[in-house]
Design a protein that fits this description.
By secondary structure, this protein is an alpha/beta fold. The protein has helices at about 1-10, 35-45, 55-60, 65-70, 70-90, 105-120, 135-145, and strands at about 15-20, 50, 95-100, 120-125. The chain has one domain.
Length: about 150
Amino acid sequence: MFLYQKMTSYMMSDKVNIYLAGAMESAGGNMNFPLFDFVAAKLRAAGFEVCNPADLARQHIGSLDQIRKMSKQDLQIASRELLWMELTWIRYKAKILVLLPGWEQSAGAQIEKQLAEYYGVKVWQAPDVILLSDVELDNILALAKE
């Protein structure tokens, strides 16, 4: 019953909920955390609720240093668990999925995009150079209102 109640509350939210999708493991040594964190901060400052996979990784696995020290096998197990949480958030809460530059190189981001499209979540591809100007933030908000 708890999971059902939680999912129902996600679906009833009027807030514009954005999920960030992009390359993490394929981005090199920093897991692309700086890009995810920058975009999440800009969107939150504009009033959006944001699911940032970098935040989820830090909450459920540990710091970037801890993640770097994990064996490949342990990282794969942890990544699978995170992907389940991320896909659940997209399915039940996201109104917009933002594709970050380089998302095409990420199998996880490709799955997230497919799931979003399947369930009617709007998809917005960020430009190659992410500044997220007021105009771009307005475009994201307009997309949510369509």
